[in-house]
């Protein structure tokens, strides 16, 4: 005997349809819960978390001699990147960092005249070892280009730092990542501390400019642009 009931009147069809809807809703809810937890756990930007800690009242001297000289980047310094992953249409903030940062800065009078910051990209880590493996082997060939370097290109006036103990700065320079260099500008704040100088800031980066391959797996992709962040503790050489 032929079943004359319409297709959508059959119980099994409705069960399958309802199950599919519930599965879709569950996936959306799970994605949003994951995104919310990941974004909440992401480290704050250096600019927002470190300037207040570094500022030391009474450090101003009004003299360029207080800041002039050769400075070395040392213990306590960090650098890394911040980028948005797109997971099923939701933005997830990913932060990778390392304390393997070296370099030197020269201040002549009240001007920053030279400086180099070098970061070992092989030691940059996030909250995911799988992501880190992709970063160090496919996104960037760290076996051939293990370091990223920022080099100061023009002198920067630091009169405000000598006078008041802190200064907002823009540093023109060259950023080398993955063996490819681009002119850019680092923006941040430099502050005198009991131990020396504290410099925190960021550089906007378009990954393709440095030949960095951002993954796109369909359900998850990485934005084309991100930020290189740094927090540098400098002491006199």
UniProtKB/TrEMBL annotation:
Keywords of this entry: Membrane, Transmembrane, Transmembrane helix
Membrane spanning stretches: 12-35
Domain of life, per lineage: Bacteria
Organism: Brevibacterium casei
InterPro entries found in the cross-reference section: Lipid/polyisoprenoid-bd_YceI, TTHA0802/YceI-like_sf
Domain Lipid/polyisoprenoid-binding YceI-like: 70-235
Protein name: YceI family protein
Family as reported in the entry's similarity comment: Belongs to the UPF0312 family.
One Pfam match: YceI
């Amino acid at each position: 005997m032929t079943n004359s009931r319409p297709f959508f009147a059959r119980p099994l069809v409705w069960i399958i349809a309802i199950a599919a809807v519930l599965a879709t809703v569950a996936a959306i809810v799970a994605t949003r819960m994951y995104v919310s937890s990941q974004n909440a756990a992401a480290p704050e930007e250096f600019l927002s978390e470190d300037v207040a800690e570094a500022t030391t009242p009474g450090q101003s001297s009004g003299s360029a001699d207080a800041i002039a000289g050769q400075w070395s980047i040392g213990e306590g310094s960090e650098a890394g990147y911040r980028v948005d992953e797109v997971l099923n249409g939701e933005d997830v903030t990913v932060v990778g960092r390392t304390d393997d940062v070296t370099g030197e800065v020269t201040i002549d009078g009240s001007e920053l005249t030279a400086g180099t910051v070098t970061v070992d990209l092989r030691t940059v880590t996030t909250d995911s070892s799988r992501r880190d493996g992709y970063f160090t082997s496919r996104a960037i060939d760290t076996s051939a280009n293990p370091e990223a370097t920022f080099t100061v290109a023009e002198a920067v006036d630091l009169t405000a730092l000598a006078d008041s103990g802190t200064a907002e700065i823009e540093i023109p320079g060259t950023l080398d990542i993955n063996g490819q260099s681009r002119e850019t500008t680092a923006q941040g704040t430099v502050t005198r501390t009991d131990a020396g100088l504290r410099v925190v800031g960021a550089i906007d980066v378009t990954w393709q400019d440095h030949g960095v391959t951002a993954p796109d797996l369909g359900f998850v992709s990485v934005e084309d642009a991100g930020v290189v962040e740094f927090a540098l503790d400098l002491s006199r050489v």
